[in-house]
Amino acid sequence: MGEVETVIEVVLKQCYKSSMKRAAIEITGIVQGIGFRPFIFNLAKNYLVRGWILNNGKGVLIDAESENGNLDRFIQDIPKLAPPLARIESFDVKYLEPLGYGTFEIRKSEEAQEKFTLISPDVATCDQCLSELFLPQNFRYRYPFINCTLCGPRFTIIQDIPYDRHKTTMAPFAMCPICQKEYENPSDRRFHAQPNACPACGPSLCLKDREGREAPGDPIVNTLDLLAKGRIVAIKGLGGFHLACDAKNQEAVSSLRSRKFREDKPFAVMCQDIVEVKKHGEVSEEEEKLLLSVERPIVILRKSKDSPIARAIAPYQDTLGVMLPYSPLHHLLLNGPLKTLVMTSGNVSDEPISYKNDEAFRRLSKIADVFLFHNREIHMRSDDSVTRIFDGKPYILRRSRGYVPFPIKLSFPLEMILACGGELKNTFCLTRGQYAFISHHIGDLENLETLTSFEEGIEHFKRLFYIEPRAVTYDLHPDYLSTQYALSIPNIPKIGVQHHHAHIVSAMAENGVEGDVIGVALDGTGFGLDGTIWGGEFIRANLRDFDRLAHLRKVPMPGGSMAIKEPWRMAMVYLSEAFGDEATKLKVDPMKRIDFQRWDILKRAIKRKVNTPLTSSMGRLFDAISSLLSVRDEVHYEGQAAIELEMIADHEVEEEYRFHIHRDEMPMVIDPTEMIRGMVRDLIDRVPASKISGKFHRTISRMVIETCEAIRSKEKSSRVVLSGGVFQNIFLLSLVTESLKRSGFEVYTHHLVPANDGGISLGQAVVAHMRLFN
Ligand SMILES: [Zn+2]
Ligand SMILES: [Zn+2]
């Protein structure tokens, strides 16, 4: 009997084999530690695929065998249905002779020859975990730390590599038998989910008052109760603390503002769901997609006129920064009666965000009434990312939680380089092959705390990605702490990169652009090669060098950095340039507010060149106009005057002001004096500020187009790259982009890295590579 059976089996197997196909599939990218193997295991079961999968040094290797149609469908489904965290970079399929595998199994990982692998950013709670969170029968019902291989903390809890539980801040929590079983079961969603936890074995919450006394009862219920009563709660999240309060409670929001010493910089809010978001802001299809993406950034939306949230959340703004819950704790907090909460960074004024319990307790005790702590430590602080939609695509203003440490892929490999970035909105960048690892948002490098965070961040990234830099690069500004740090590193080649060149190359790098381009870098402050402050720059740039071809006419900045804080000074400077001593006699509103004694002192300082650097900054011109139109004479945060000027602009206006480009000079000089005179005429004629702002935006756009056209006639270059903080102004960016395209230019803008100084580290790294190693 046995023999007969064997014969039949052999015959059957051969028939079977003839209709069978086998493929070796190699996949690289982010495919480890994100639930890829269980996903393949289950997909194989669905299609009756047999064979195996294993992790190797580059990604995963799959050997799969099944009937013709099934194997094809299996292969097609891999990229289509892959877990949300997967980033497939290459997908190679080789067909082989079938072997007759009996089952599908997960094999032991190959010992990696190269230890380097990509690390996943933190990811928003997945739908499956979410439904378990709210299912009373589930043993993780209302458990604030539920996660699986498809979601949960990653970057912020990783202390070292390889990514394994004992090298994360989950190490102190030993898994209970149930969690352990899930962790070991290849068909389970929690197979090798390093942060796997449950109420029996994982982290927990605790609510404390300002005296450190723990409140009895359910911390979530109590927190919701206090929020409803108008209290301010410091809440420990994924990458740091938030300060939260009821978004509809005017009083709570105002007291948060005053306790945080934050006069008018807008607060972000978190809404229960997309339906709630739509009550506060206008949401396009792309914005909805971005809000719901696994990165869950803050998305800047146009504020609805009838939104019931407190005005003090975003005073003087027609926009609102909104995000959706991204951790189970957020879902629990927003599932109650409060459908929108203020969720702003847990810091005082411009300090870095708090991320450790004792530190938060110390620093936030004058702001928060109570603290919602948990005992899973945050290893790397990471602020919420901030985005907008431009041209139907995400336009990143702050790239941090959810995006970092995923690298930017370059079009060619780089030597290992450390780029130290700028001063404001600092990020650093480390390169390895075709990858540029731009750090999380470090913040303004103005104090010891951010400097420490910067230095620790660099060491952490070097370890995570096996990077030993062969060169270091920095901004030319001698006073930047990032520059001083770079210069203090011993025994390594060092190279400075001009600020605006770095901006342009950063945009070129993310777009894969090489060769010569016309770079238009418009921003506030950047140290120029001639020692003056640049910021309205048109350069011929490639990845290695640049030449300055045109710039905004230089004007004095009386009082140096004080002129940035007090835009009225720049308004007076521009008025004096246009009208001389007659400026103070003009019958326009700003003259009613000017302290003429102070202005006289500044005028003398300008004459004697005392603390009065020259600048070609476009940011300062925006400031001047903002004050001239009585929008803002003094700012409380970077860019405020320009932001509010953009906000009031009438988009329907079609007129422009006159200006002059001195084409015979080299570099060419763009002179806005005629524009200032035209604006004053409009002010005297009582033209509304909104109209003047609209005309001003159109005029700046016209300046860019005409300067680029003048350059094109000499340079034969028709590719324009736009970068710099001024291009966070979406109205201007749209005007410029559209007109340049109409004039036949190819236009490149940022999408993956910020146009502001948060993006320059990438440009520095690329320039340094080209100059030192190419
Ligand atoms: Zn999940
Ligand atoms: Zn457990």
List the helices and strands and how they pair.
Blueprint: H1 2-18, E1 20-30, H2 36-46, E2 50-55, E3 59-67, H3 68-81, E4 87-96, E5 104-106, H4 127-133, H5 177-184, E6 205-209, H6 219-228, E7 233-236, E8 241-246, H7 250-259, E9 269-271, H8 274-280, E10 281-282, H9 285-292, E11 298-303, E12 319-323, H10 328-334, E13 340-345, H11 357-364, E14 370-374, E15 386-390, E16 393-398, E17 408-414, E18 417-419, E19 429-438, H12 448-464, E20 471-475, H13 481-488, E21 494-497, H14 499-511, E22 517-527, E23 533-541, E24 546-552, E25 555-556, H15 562-565, H16 567-579, H17 590-593, H18 596-608, E26 614-615, H19 618-628, H20 640-648, E27 660-662, E28 668-671, H21 673-684, H22 689-715, E29 719-723, H23 730-742, E30 746-748, H24 760-773
Parallel strand pairs: 2-5, 7-14, 9-12, 11-15, 18-20, 20-21, 22-29, 24-28, 29-30
Antiparallel strand pairs: 1-3, 1-4, 2-3, 6-14, 7-8, 8-13, 9-13, 10-11, 11-12, 15-16, 17-19, 18-19, 22-23, 23-24, 25-26, 27-28
Bound molecules: zinc ion (ZN) (2 copies).
What would you note in describing this structure?
The chain is of the alpha/beta class and 774 residues long. The protein contains 24 helices and 30 strands. Strands 6, 7, 8, 9, 10, 11, 12, 13, 14, 15 and 16 form an eleven-stranded mixed beta sheet that branches. A seven-stranded mixed beta sheet has the order 27-28-24-23-22-29-30, sandwiched between helices. A five-stranded mixed beta sheet has the order 4-1-3-2-5. Strand 20 (471-475), helix 13 (481-488) and strand 21 (494-497) form a beta-alpha-beta unit. Helix 16 crosses helix 21 (673-684) and helix 19 crosses helix 20. The mean pLDDT is 94. One zinc ion binds next to helix 5.
